[in-house]
Amino acid sequence: MADAVIVVALLLTAASATVAVATRDPARQALVLSLLGLVLGALFTVLQAPDVGLSQLAVGSALTPLLIMLSVRKVKRRGKEGDR
Asked: pLDDT, tens digit, for every residue of 43-55?
């Protein structure tokens, strides 16, 4: 049973990482990256590393996508100011 859960978590990780790489829009990429962080946190928890899983949840699913979204927003805003 435990092996099946690990295999499912690994498949979800591979699928979400592939979608994150294949997505072209940076805003959508940040959202998929957040999903990848959640899946990785679950994978680490399944692999009996709950401390690493909690850290991954905080950083991978919250902070990193937030920083990407803020950066994309700032770049778009500067692009509009440059057009004036």
From this structure: 999 999 999 999 9
